[in-house]
Each structure stands twice: as structure tokens, then as C-alpha cells.
Amino acid sequence: MTTDNTPEKPVDFIRQIIADDLKSGKHRTIVTRFPPEPNGFLHIGHAKSICLNFGIARENNATCHLRFDDTNPGKESTEYVEAIKADVHWLGFDWGEHLYYASDYFEQLYDFAIQLIGRGKAYVCHLNADEMREYRGTLTEPGKNSPYRDRTVEENLVLFEQMKNGELDEGTCALRAKIDMASPNILMRDPVIYRIMKTSHHRTGDTWCIYPMYDFCHCLSDMLEKITHSLCTLEFENNRPLYDWVLDTLETPCHPRQYEFARLNINYTVMSKRKLLQLVEKNHVLGWDDPRMLTISGLRRRGYTPASIRNFCAVIGMGKRDSWIDMGVLENAIRDDLNEHAPRVLGVLRPLKVVITNYPEDQEEELVAQNHPQKPEMGTRMVPFCREIYVEETDFMEDAPRKFFRLSVGREVRLRYAYLVTCQEVIKDENGKVVELRCTYDPETRGGSAPDGRKVKGTIHWVSARHGIPAEIRLYDRLFTAEHPDMDKEKDFTEFLNPDSLNTLHTSILEPTLAKATMEDRFQFERQGYFCLDSLDSTTEHPVFNRIVTLRDSWKKMTRKK
Ligand code: ATP
Ligand code: MG
């Protein structure tokens, strides 16, 4: 396997902060957490956060908690919880006994809310959503105090209890923190910290009909778990004063520190769970694990290795400013991994039959093929050869230009690991479509070189027609044609879906060794890219291979040409 870039010296500002905190004795050990909301599957952006939080814990011999931030019933489910756990494990990380749910803290969070009310720092407010927005003010204007702001503690306690007991209707009131309606930070203008929501929760059922808001729940969950460094993405920078306010006001025994890092953005894709959900629900893709989706489960099914994703996260680094990462960087990460490790095989994607007329009908032989030409230690295998073989349709051209070093009448090419063959004749069907080539081979060129030293430039791949195994092949391209599909003001991101993102080939023929391929195997089909079995649809009778990635970045070439 590829080794991870485990650094000796801190490589980013967060690791630097942690190293300093350990050195100064501020912390004897550290605790991080990864806090997904179970309202969808994880995507490559989450992988960045997972590699950061679990990676830091691993490097420091410390713990990282997996905490489900499940405070929004209705959108959340146990199915998502299980998928997220599987994805974190697959990426190579483990939370050990530290699996938590914000919903486990509902009772304690409720008590904290009562404490806030008791300290005169929270109140039940009956403004409706529109009024609340109006009272909040704008970036340039301060807000106005709610008419309910100065209720007595006793009154607030009674009302909050009624909220909890389901005596008040959804939307009629909410519990708000009493901070400062004139704060330049709008999030500090008396934010809502509890709302009424008469929705069953996937873990607590109907026990609760009030649920805490993120800003109240998150800092207290961190505190209860004694998290030392609470790492989140930059959009939470303005939430930090609120995070600190809640903990300070409640005078909690420990006060985790929040640090923000830049979220991962990749071009030619969308990265928000809401949009990914939309792709799934509107059937633009075949599911959360569609190999074109940049979800962890999609990447896994596509054939990405956990190591390639961890390396990708190491390569992109951890900055404090938002930036775009080119999709090619992700593709290169898996290419680099597979280039090292994937055995080479022969597979013809779009077959064209070739009959070698001077090769005896009843003859067969086995030829030695290298599993990795640059790595002799990966050994060799035998591939069968006979009178009828398949080659790639695109390796033949009728009116070939001079520099076409492949098959055309009168031209000689090398069949990889086999013989030199010369094309003699083209057979067409009634529509003029080329359906077969007649070639002759030179028996003196076994292995692919001519004893007389004559030069043959082109080498093509092939598969024995008698021995090859039929397979379905799925070729993928990027899901979107636009670099930033969700940043167009006029158009919905789905308008930029690439109509050619999936190309299914039903008649491909592969060398017989691939009959033994397992779900874990990944191969380079010579000249065609890297492939693996599709974990969902492939069967022994009907093998289905996904192309993980092409051999080269074809998009780069295209943009260069423009
Ligand atoms: P999305 O915006 O895609 O819906 P989210 O932030 O709502 O994602 P959460 O389940 O709340 O999803 O995220 C869990 C953790 O993953 C958070 O700490 C969040 O900051 C982090 N995370 C989410 N998206 C990214 C990203 N693109 N890059 C880095 N970290 C991310
Ligand atoms: Mg979120």
C-alpha cells in the first residue's frame, strides 16, 4: 500500500497549534471529534475533516470521537448513521469506544437551557419567523429588542416547560439566548437555541418535541466530551463568539477551543449534502454510491482506495483560506496509487475480430505476459493465443494517415506479448461496416520481436476469441460539464449535468485471468485505464467492470487545446 504522509514536523497551522499546546502543558493529551449530521452520506469534503481529526488523534496517540450531530429529526435516519460509520471505517479510522450522539445529551442540554434561563440569559420569545427576521436588523443596522425579552425568570421557566411538554404549537415560540441585539455579529443578536418540533427522532422517538439548535448543542457536546480542539470549517468563524458565550455564561468546567480551516471545494462537482440528495432523489444518479458521485461510498464503488483518498487529503493541505482544488488532483491521487500497485492485463473494450489466416485452426499456445513491466517482482502470467482474436475497433483505420502505427491493410503491428501481424484484408457487412480483419502472423516473432531486427512501431492489445471472457464495462466521465455548476446565478446546477457521464459497453472481451478477479482487485487494462469490479452489479456470470480512472488526464489535454 502507499504510505501516508505522516509528518515529522507539524505541516499545517492546526497541527502547529496542537503541538504548541502539548509542549506548553496547556493540554496533557488532546481529544478531537468528527461531528457529522446523519442527514446524508459523507462526501470527499468530509474525508478532509475525517483525515484531519482522526489523523491528528493518531499522530498524537490520542482519541477522536465520532459524534452524530442528530438534532434535526425529519431529515436524519439510522440508515445514514450506519453508512457514515462504514465510511469512516473504510477510510481507515476508528473511534474505538468513543461513539456519541448529540441526542444522548438531550436531557443535559435541557438542564443547561434551564440554567441559562435561571441566570437571566435566555427567554421564550413569541415573535414569529418573519418578525424575528425584522427585529434582527441587518449588517448595517442594529436589531431591536424583542417585546418578550424582559420576561421574568419564573415566567420563562414555566413557558419553557410548556414547550417541552408539547403544550405549545410548533412555530409559536422559541427559546432565545439573551445576548446583544446591537452586536455587529448578527449571530449574537439573541439567537434561537431551542425550537419546538413535533417530529419523531430516529433515536429518541417521541420523547422530545423541542430540539436544541446547532450553536447551543455543539459547544456543550464538545464540552461534555472534553474535546480539546474543536475543528470546523471556515463558515463557522462567526459562530465562534457564540460558542464561547454559551460556555462562558454557563461557567462550564472545561472550555474546548474552536479552530476553523478551509473547506474542500473541487471543481466539476457539487459538494453539499443537500445537492447530492437532490441528485439521488431526482434520479440524476443511481444512488448515493453511484460511482460518479464524490461521496465516500461512490468513490469506494468506483474503485478508489482509502490510501489514495488519505493521500489526496494530505496533498491538498490545510489552509485558512477557501480555494478550489482541481478534480485532476483527486484523479491523480488514485492514478499514482494504481500505477504503483495495479497489475496490468489485456482487455478489449470495443472488439473487432481478427482472423490470423496462417495460424492453424486447432492450434493454441500460451504466451508469457508481464504483470507490471516496470516491476519485474510482480511476476508474469500466461495468456492464451489462437487463430481468432479480438483487437480494439479504434486500432484499425481503413484510410490511415502515414503516422497511424496500428492496423490498416498492408501494415504490420505488434500484438502485445505475442507476434507481429500484418493486416491483409478487411471484411465488411452489408452496410459497409468493418466487421473482421484478416491478418497473417510471422511465426518467427514469438514474444514480439523480429529476428531480422525490422522495426515495428505500434503495439496493440488483444484477447483470444476462444478464451476471452465477455464483460460489461462502465466508462465514467465527470458528472458536470461546468467548472462551478452551483455558482451560476441564472441556472440550476442540474442544468450542467454531463449527458455523457456514463458510457456502458456491453460487448467487451477480457483476458481469461480476469475470471478470477475479486471485488478488492484493481487492474490496469493496458492502454485503457484502471478498472475494478462493480461491487453492486457484478456477478460471476455477468462481470461488470468500472473504469476507475483513465491513464492520463484527458480534461487537461482538452483545456490546453482550447
Ligand atoms: P454539507 O455542507 O455538505 O451539507 P455539512 O457541513 O452540513 O456538509 P456535517 O455533517 O455537518 O455536514 O459535517 C460534518 C463535519 O464535516 C463538519 O465538521 C464539517 O465542517 C465538515 N465538512 C463538511 N463539508 C466539508 C468540506 N467540504 N470540507 C471540509 N470539511 C467539511
Ligand atoms: Mg452541517
Structure description:
- Helix 2 (44-59) crosses helix 11 (306-316) and helix 7 crosses helix 8.
- The model has no long low-confidence stretch (mean pLDDT 96).
- The protein is 26% helix and 23% strand.
- It has 13 helices and 27 strands.
- The strands form seven sheets. Strands 12-25-26-27-23-24-13 form a seven-stranded mixed sheet. Strands 21-18-19-20-14-17-22 form a seven-stranded mixed sheet, with no helix packed on it.
- It has helices at 13-24, 44-59, 78-90, 106-118, 129-136, 153-164, 214-224, 240-249, 273-281, 296-302, 306-316, 327-341, 554-561; strands spanning 31-34, 63-68, 99-101, 122-125, 174-177, 192-196, 210-212, 229-233, 257-261, 264-266, 323-325, 344-345, 347-348, 351-356, 364-370, 380-386, 388-392, 412-415, 420-428, 434-441, 459-460, 462-464, 469-476, 502-510, 523-525, 529-533, 544-549.
- It binds adenosine-5'-triphosphate and magnesium ion.
- Adenosine-5'-triphosphate binds at residues 35-37, 45-46, 48-49, 69, 232-233, 263-264, 271-274.
Layout of helices and strands, plus pairs?
Layout: H1 13-24, E1 31-34, H2 44-59, E2 63-68, H3 78-90, E3 99-101, H4 106-118, E4 122-125, H5 129-136, H6 153-164, E5 174-177, E6 192-196, E7 210-212, H7 214-224, E8 229-233, H8 240-249, E9 257-261, E10 264-266, H9 273-281, H10 296-302, H11 306-316, E11 323-325, H12 327-341, E12 344-345, E13 347-348, E14 351-356, E15 364-370, E16 380-386, E17 388-392, E18 412-415, E19 420-428, E20 434-441, E21 459-460, E22 462-464, E23 469-476, E24 502-510, E25 523-525, E26 529-533, E27 544-549, H13 554-561
Parallel strand pairs: 1-2, 2-3, 8-9, 10-11, 12-25, 14-20, 18-21, 23-27
Antiparallel strand pairs: 4-5, 5-6, 6-7, 13-24, 14-17, 15-16, 17-22, 18-19, 19-20, 23-24, 25-26, 26-27
Helix pairs in contact: 2-11, 7-8, 11-12
The chain binds adenosine-5'-triphosphate and magnesium ion (MG).
